Amino acid sequence: MLITNKKATFSVNVVISNKKGARDPEGETILRDLVNKSGFEKTVKSIRAGKFLRVEVEAFDEEEAKMTVSKMCNELRIFNPAAHKLSVEVGRIAD
Amino acid sequence: MLITNKKATFSVNVVISNKKGARDPEGETILRDLVNKSGFEKTVKSIRAGKFLRVEVEAFDEEEAKMTVSKMCNELRIFNPAAHKLSVEVGRIAD
Asked: Is the pLDDT of residue A94 over 50?
């Protein structure tokens, strides 16, 4: 049997943020020291900061691309599962 | 005339990343010192790092929410337009 499927390159977006219950000093500081002194506090209610990674990965389909990147982030301990949550999505945020 | 439209809260995702031509020491280090020593280098070809902010903002619609956050990031100089590019999207990455 000849396999004709070819791998393509996918752009996978990773967001590493503090867990929901945890404090977020960076977001709190932006809100308190910038936003709340500017007039934007009338509409801007909360800011949470995080780390963003765009990973270019070769895979047969979106699902495989996502799986590879999740596995990589977990195995290489790119984030701390005790403190952070990981969000992985394929190519949502435009270049 | 009675205006019945009510404001809702939107979750706006902001990504601040280095401009395309610019180097990205953080992403390069993750790729070189973690990924390339792990076996993932067979499929993972590039990593670019950035800053992520999730902003909760009150607005009448998605368009207004996005506009408010873009304006805020520009006016408060949350990023450096000479070095970084800004990407603003409404509620794409799940909580």
From this structure: no
Contact (CB, 8 A) for A14 and A52: yes
CA distance B89 to B63: 10
CB contact B46 to A (< 8 Å)? yes
Rounded to whole angstroms, how far apart are CA atoms A69 and B47?
Answer: 11
Tell me, yes or no, if B78 comes closer than 8 A to chain A by beta carbon: yes
Residues of chain A in contact with residue B33, where contact means CB-CB under 8 angstroms, are none
Q: Position of tokens 């982030």?
A: A73
ipTM of the complex: 0.84
Residues of A in Cβ contact (< 8 Å) with B27: 53-54
Residues in chain B within 8 Å Cβ distance of A51: 49-52
| pTM, entire model | 0.85
**Burial state string for B44-59 with b = 16 or more CB within 10 A and e = fewer than 16:** beebbbbbbbbbbbbb
Q: How many CB atoms lie within 10 A of CB B23?
A: 9
Report the 10 Å Cβ neighbour count for B11.
18
DSSP string, B60-85: SSHHHHHHHHHHHHHHTT-S-TTTEE
Residue A62 distance to chain B (closest CA, Å)? 13
Nearest CA-CA distance, residue A1 and chain B, Å = 24
Mean pLDDT of B5-20: 91
